[in-house]
Design a protein that fits this description.
The protein is mainly α and 784 residues long. The strands form five sheets. It has a two-stranded antiparallel ribbon with strand order 1-2. Strands 3-6 form a two-stranded antiparallel sheet. β4 and β5 (232-233) form a beta hairpin. The two termini are 48 Å apart.
């Protein structure tokens, strides 16, 4: 049977862990009561025996009568063991908080320990109540704002619908007015233009009146200006009085400033000549934003409901343990107080959940409750034993095929001096691409496994859908399947090459494998993890066009992965040139290596990941006005300089370029190490209670963190090999390059865990468990 402490640990919300009742601490206090408990008399009614007298004949009858009377009147005559008093505290101004304090009515033999227990129990109860009340207020405020925005959206949709009807019915009359206007020659303007201006103004006034019916007040709406063409120029500010905006983790705050509709997207962009300043597409965009906000609100309410139920169970369990240890019945009186407290007695969460369900069903699911529940309560993926089976199967196939390849390569002498240059220059780059991709996928699977084992909420951090998020078993399956196919192709390629087939035919196998991979990646059918594939493509698009897209956590996290895959991108360059120049037919591999364009592209490809990441830092600085992003950009600029200098040194091995390599690489490495340890991992805090780490650690053994710091340091200075050059022949040179590239992928996978761990702890510190969705209405004076 699983202990409740472990069950609670497995079910609690990770980001709200500190707000839950500290069950383990209370349990330890009960153990102290048990150890300090004094022995009690064997009987409540001791019988003294006179040496000369025996027991009375009626003594058993008296004992039976006394026992019967105790059971009969126990409910009314048993005195209260403790008394829980409630007082109101208004330290935060108008916000009145209920504080509970327990006083012992009956003396215990271990009274000091019992007092400490109930004092801590009161602290936990007050903590739970205060957190529940703050979150409840926040979610209720969110609900009020969403209902207000939904009303405004409904009015806009109605205006759009009515306008289409009027335009359709009045199209003939407008044509007649326009025809008469063309025959007139008035200097003040044609009647058609005046009619269009008046229509535009009337539509604007109609929309303002409709929105004001919902309590939206427009500031300076009477002083609207007009454009040069006479059309209304709207710069409207909306004031929603007594509204509350909830920012998860920051508490609810009243809006005292004006609110503003994003009229640039909804109203303020009239199409030239048509006056269609509200389009269906923009309305649908606003509707999608509000729908997503309702889904997040419902999810937050569900989490708060789970929070209440788990804490109630925890209080019940701990009080029963106290009764068992103390031999008293104290749980009943205290549980009555717990049941009357705010986090269990308030029904606002349940009522708001029902209201959100009805609103969502009506407005976003066409009154189909089953469809609405698919959005509000998405089903979690279930682990499949078949996935585990195929992971083991493909792992075994990979090991077997790789052993076969090693044996065949040794027997055929493919790595001897006569054939090694051709084989390594033509086939090696293609297969290295797949090998590095498979290794990166395997490391990502290890990351997913560790994040799940340590209860790091990576799906929330990356904003993945819980129904389609990749699990660690799926990542392992993709990696092992991919690598098995690659090694199988290498074995077939080697067998055909040894069998005497022409090199122009055999060397098309890597190209066919690459083509199959691209087809699977862009396959539009719902197979081979389509949501994950399309998400990957969308993230790559955001990275390449980073200045033009808002940067999310998953975007710059993936861009960091690309900075560790520069050798892979260089191999892709070689592969593309090899097949596009049809070198596989002529086997002239020097065609690409000696070309000027190919040599210049090496700089561009080496710079691209760092450049994209630097552009993301600029975009984040622009959006957030945080200068740390500009400092972070400097790290990637220094890495670009170091990468370019190393490429130049590989071609011109002079003392000048050697000095440049040392200076640029040392500066870039120190920059990267500082950012890794201090910013990305949050370590090296000299004032931490964990020496040179941080106060909060997910892993219990601190030695893992010290080892990780040392490992990251060693792998960060792998560029020293470019100076020392442990190379004897082309085979060893290529194998060493592949080894260093693999070590960098392993370092990145190792870095990933601590980066996401630090982000998770930041969410825990601010109690962020629900996303804050941007809405069509936002506070113009806020910093968000």
């Amino acid at each position: 049977m699983v202990k409740f402490s472990k069950e609670l640990e497995a079910q609690l919300i990770p980001e709200w862990k500190e707000a839950f009742v500290n069950y383990c601490l209370l349990k330890k206090q009960i153990k102290k009561i048990k150890t300090s408990r004094k022995p009690k008399p064997a009987s409540l009614y001791p019988i003294t025996h006179h040496p000369d007298c025996g027991l009375s004949l009626f003594q058993p009858v008296h004992n039976l009568a006394r026992t019967f009377s105790d059971k009969l009147f126990s409910s009314s005559e048993t005195p209260e063991i403790l008394e829980v008093r409630r007082r109101n505290s208004s330290e935060n101004g108008d916000n009145v908080e209920e504080i509970y304090q327990t006083e012992l009515v009956q003396l215990f033999s271990e009274e000091d320990e019992v007092k400490v227990f109930f004092a801590r129990l009161d602290e936990e109860l007050n903590k739970v109540n205060q957190f529940h009340k703050s979150k409840e207020t926040e979610f209720v405020g969110r609900g009020e704002i969403l209902k207000k925005q939904l009303d405004i959206l409904a009015e806009l949709k109605q205006i759009l619908s009515d306008r289409k009807k009027r335009n359709h019915s009045g199209s003939n009359s407008h044509r007649s007015v326009n025809s008469s206007a063309r025959n007139s020659d008035f200097s003040a303007g044609s009647p058609g233009e005046l009619s269009e201006t008046q229509s535009e103004t009337s539509r604007t006034d109609e929309m303002i009146e409709a929105l004001e019916r919902n309590g939206v007040n427009f500031i300076n709406s009477a002083t609207r200006t007009k454009t040069k063409g006479g059309k209304p120029k709207m710069s409207l500010r909306v004031d929603i009085p007594d509204a509350v905006v909830g920012a998860d983790g920051g508490g609810a705050r009243s809006i005292s400033t004006a609110m503003s509709v994003l009229w640039e997207e909804l109203v303020n962009n009239p199409r030239s000549g048509g006056g269609d300043f509200i389009t269906r597409k923009k309305i649908q965009c606003a509707e999608k934003m509000i729908r997503k906000a309702f889904v997040e609100l419902y999810r937050g309410l569900g989490l708060l409901k789970t929070y209440s139920s788990l804490n109630m169970i925890a209080f019940t369990k701990i009080l029963k343990k106290f009764d068992k240890v103390s031999g008293q019945q104290a749980s009943s009186s205290y549980l009555r107080v717990v049941k009357r407290s705010q986090f269990t007695s308030s029904d606002k969460v349940v009522r708001l959940m029902d209201e959100v369900e009805s609103i969502f069903t009506k407005h976003f699911a066409n009154s189909d409750r089953k469809k609405a529940m698919k959005f509000l309560r998405p089903h979690q993926q279930k682990d499949s034993h078949m996935v585990t089976f195929f992971v083991g199967l493909f792992t075994g196939c990979f090991v077997s095929l790789f052993s076969i390849y090693i044996i065949l390569a040794h027997l055929s002498g493919i790595f001897t001096s006569g054939a090694q240059v051709s084989y390594m220059e033509t086939v090696y780059p293609v297969f290295s691409v797949f090998a590095l991709l498979s290794l990166h996928m395997f490391m990502y699977g290890c990351n997913l496994f560790m994040w799940k084992s340590t209860r790091i909420n990576y799906t929330f951090i990356f904003e993945f859908s819980p129904t389609t998020a990749l699990r660690y078993r799926d990542a392992f399956l993709m990696g092992t399947t991919f690598m098995t196919a690659v090694v199988g192709a290498m074995v077939i390629h080697l067998i055909l090459r040894v069998a005497g087939f022409s090199a122009s035919q055999v060397d098309t196998i890597p190209g066919i494998l690459l083509l199959i991979f691209i087809c699977v990646l862009i396959c539009p059918f719902d197979a081979f993890y389509r949501p994950t594939r399309f998400c990957f493509i969308r993230i790559l698009r955001n990275i390449v066009c980073s200045p033009f897209y808002k940067v999310l956590m998953v975007d710059f996290f993936m861009a960091d992965q690309l900075t560790s895959q520069i050798p892979l991108l260089r191999h892709l360059e070689s592969t593309a040139c090899y097949f596009m120049a049809q070198s596989f037919r002529t086997h002239e591999y020097n065609t690409c290596k000696n070309g000027r364009i190919y040599r210049e592209l090496a700089y561009l490809i080496s710079f691209s990941p760092y450049f994209w990441r630097a552009m993301q830092c600029i975009r984040r600085w622009w959006d957030e006005s945080n200068t740390d992003h500009l400092v972070n950009m400097g790290k990637y600029v220094s890495a670009m300089v170091a990468a370019g200098v190393r490429i130049t040194y590989a071609r011109e091995s002079t003392n000048l370029w050697l000095t440049a390599v040392l200076v640029s690489s040392v500066v870039a490495t120190l920059y990267q190490l500082y950012w890794d340890f201090v910013k990305d991992w949050g370590l090296l805090n000299p004032k931490s209670k964990n020496p040179w780490l941080r106060d909060e650690l997910v892993l219990k053994n601190k030695n893992f963190y010290y080892f990780s710091i040392a490992l990251n340091l060693v792998l960060r200075v792998a560029w020293i090999e470019t100076i020392v050059r442990f190379r004897v022949n082309p085979v060893q040179s290529h194998l060493l390059d592949f080894l260093l590239a693999s070590l960098e992928v392993i370092r990145r996978g190792h870095w990933n865990f601590y980066r996401v761990e630090n982000e998770h702890l930041n969410n825990v510190g601010h109690f962020r468990a629900v996303k804050t969705v941007p809405l069509p209405f936002r506070d113009m004076d806020s910093d968000d």
